[in-house]
Prior knowledge:
Radius of gyration: 16 Å
CATH superfamily: Aldolase class I
CATH topology: TIM Barrel
CATH class: Alpha Beta
Strand order of the largest sheet: 1-8-7-6-5-4-3-2
Largest sheet: 8 strands, parallel
Bound molecules: D-xylitol-5-phosphate, zinc ion
Helix content: 25-40%
Structural class: alpha/beta
Amino acid sequence: MNPIIAPSILAADFANLQREVEMINSSQADWIHIDIMDGVFVPNISMGVPVVEAIKRHSKKPLDVHLMIVQPEKYVEAFCNAGAETISVHIEACPHLHRNIQQIKLLGCKAGVAINPHTPISHLSEIIQDIDLVCLMSVNPGFGGQKFIEKTYEKIEELKTLINAKKSSALIEIDGGVNQQNAKALLVAGAHVLVAGNSVFALENPNEAIRRLKEVS
Ligand code: DX5
Ligand code: ZN
């Protein structure tokens, strides 16, 4: 099966966001992945609600919003109103994760849980049935362009087993260091969604890079 491809706008040219979104519209990409960083949960600051609204005005693709922020409950409504289709919160930032997921779903968005490289898959066991997506971090969150962590393959297998055991319909999304070289192995391991920042936007022909990722099978 072809993967869902979600180019990460973090690697785009922010001075030409409309052009970048139109490139994604014209490509085989399925979603647009948007990284929100608060400088607290992660050591970087990226963008906020007004930028998501601006992307939404031009995008023909669903917006996949990845919140790398503390206290996401303060902001999920704003991101939902800004046009997010899916909102993922970090398990490490949410002592009341079940409540966070309920809130996202009540607002009418799809709910995802993102997990850092050091967080065991078993920590998802009581929430996996309630969520639409697991965003499995394959780098430490905070920056684009980092090296893919090889241990991710094992975690995908483990997550697949958990999803099957709990009869969950959650999609497995891989975020960080995804490229043309590892995409096939990620799909074979069980990934459904590939987020790709630098391996799309740093290339001369991003549209072609997206097509090649989409056609990996
Ligand atoms: C990392 C972000 C990723 C990042 C991926 O904190 O969550 O979505 O943009 O970028 P690449 O594909 O360049 O690793
Ligand atoms: Zn991300």
